[in-house]
Structures are given as C-alpha cells and as structure tokens.
Amino acid sequence: MMAAMETYDVIIVGAGMAGLTLALALEKGGLDVALIEKQPFDQILDAGFDGRASAIAYACFRQWKALGVGDELEAHACRMDEIFVTDGHLPGAASPKPLPFFLHFAAAEISDRTGDEPLGYMVENRITRQVLHRAVTERGITLKVPAAVVEHRETGSFAEIALDTGETLRAPLVVSAEGRKSSLREKAGIGHVSWDYPQSAVVCTVRMERPHNHIAYEHFLPSGPFAILPLTENRACIVWSETHAKAKALMQVTDGFFYDHLLARFGEFLGDIELIGPRFIYPLSLGLAEDMHKGRLALLGDAAHGIHPIAGQGLNLGLKDVAALAEVLIEAVRQGEDIGTEIVLERYAKWRRFDNVSTSVVMDGFVHLFSNGNPLLRAVRDVGMGLFNRVPALRKFVMEDAGAATGDLPKLLRGELV
Question: Which residues form the signal peptide (predicted)?
Fold first, then answer.
C-alpha cells in the first residue's frame, strides 16, 4: 500500500547549522516544517565529524538568542573582544618590537552593540550542531533522518519530494540547505560559478600556557592565512592554510613533527602549547549560485554561496540568509500569500543578493592579495594596513559590517522575533 503524502508549509533539505536554525525560526513563526538530512545524526554530532569552530558575528548570535538557544550556546562559546591582523608577523604584545603595519579591532570601539556584546563568539561546530539539534527535537519539528531525496518535482501549488525511505512529502516551498554540492540546485538547473583555490586548511585545537584574553590573531603568510582563534578553557582553534601538497603532508607526519612546524608559525607569545585531539583537512574553494531561487526552490547558506574562510564570514552569510528568508516567509504567510511564488522568493533574493555577491568577491580578492610573497606587493599591503588602522571610522565600519550589523537588518539580527 502506498504511503500517504505528508504536507508541510516548508521542507528544508539539509540539517546543517543554517538548516537547523531556519527550522527553529520558521517554527517560532508558526509554520509547519519538515527537515531532511541524509546523514545519521549520530555521525554528524560525533566529535570526529567536524573539527572546526566558527566565528559567529554578534548580530547573528542575537538571532540564536531570540530563538531560545543563545544562552546554551553562550555557555560553550568564547568571546572575541579583539582581533589582530598582520602580514606575516606578530604585533603588539605578541612581538618584542611592535611594528606599525597591522590591523587592530576592539569591541569597545563599537557604540551600537547591545549591552556588552563582543566582536563575535567562537563556537565549536559540533557543539552548535548538538544544541540546535536538541532544540529542533524538543520543539517537535519533523525530522527525516537518515533520508535522501530521490525525486523533486513541482505540481501546481506544491513541490513534492520523494525520499529513499519510500515517503513522499509536499509543501509550497522547498529550501536547499545541502551545502556547496547541492543536488537540488543542480536538478533545478540553477547556474553555479565555482573554482578551487590552490590551498587546503589544516585545522586543529591547542591549549596554551598563558591566557589568550579573548584575542584572535590572523597572520597572512605567502602560503595562506594562519589563524589563532580563542576557545573556552584557554584553548584555540588553529586554521592553517597551506598548498594542497603541504597540507596533506602535515596530516601524515607524526605528532612531534607536526608540533614543531606548528610552533614555528604560532610562536611563543602564549607560552607552551599542547595539541588536543585530531587534525582535520579541508580543501578550499569558492562557489556562487547565479540565483537564489527557481520555481518553488530557494537556496540557503553554502548552497547559494561558499567562500574562503579568510575572514570567518561563511557561516555568518548563511545565518543572515536564515534571518531574511524566515522574515519574508512568515510575513507572507500572515498576508495569505503563496510562499513558493517568485514574487515572494524574489524579496528574499533581493534582500540577500548584494551582500552575498559582494562578500564573495571581496574575500576572493583578499585571498589573491595576501596569499603571495611578492615583496613589492607586501610593502604596499603593510603600508595600507598601517594607514587603515589609523582611521577609526573605517575600523568601526569594518567591525560593524563583519558583525552583521549594517544595512537593512532582519528582525532576528536585531534580536527580535518575527
């Protein structure tokens, strides 16, 4: 006997951090949501699945607080109160002879923060997934896990999704939050511009002897950026970009050999460091969809845009997508509109298109500008950074923009429910 078709307001395919957050936001707005994920959650939530930590902009963290998960996430988050950016050398307290060619960002310089907000929060991805998954489960949102989409078709005022479990679901709108290799995007024929960088990121966690004082460091080296990102318990997430060959070699060497190479880049300004847990490797690339919707399909997060982690903006772009899409859909439902129509989905695309494209272009430019050892270009970079650092208005704009607090903000990024 054929299983009955299940009907929802929105079907979200992909239960990553952006997909889970959208499910919570739509549920808060009164929509009936189904969330589909092809990988078992016990694998996704395992400590060995993802060794990364994400820098969450302070406005994006407001969204999680509005959705009722911020307090639990904040208990596992580390504030970022300051950021030092240098071109291959350590400034300030990290250098016995401070050089003027660096950028310094401090949360105290931003006047429009709510209360004592930092520049951002560092949260380990596995913790974020655990908290969001628990909230989705507790709120009774439908989860189809593990389940993969085998067919996607549109019939009149509904999109239908057939799963490999034998179930069929329908809704006025399907959202692809599948990540960079979105199968629904490809099946819909939405164009996708992409290219690989000649770099992979090696990620690991260390514990320091001296306190990090909630300061993040990013050093631009010829092979790629080297970031020291503060975590709880005086730990740091290291994101070390190298050529593919060297990154693969770093994954294969002994812990002692890896430690020696790491220490040469990390330095001794925070005392002895201790490696904690395994190493991870992630090839780096850029991808940008030519549109954010087609028919009754909308793209979210990395399915629409995947960028280099050079400034930690990847997940933040996805969370900004969530805030905009949730507000557009919830308000459309309240007005009695069909949320899967082009007129509704174009509001979402118009709200997010410029930010997504411009951020992707700027991040790509940074990669090409800083990931090289040209001595003339490096001299120009250093002088430019030094001059930029002397203009408080520019620093403030960059901090607010990176904090997701500029432009026409959706309500969730202001900490308000839709």
Answer: none
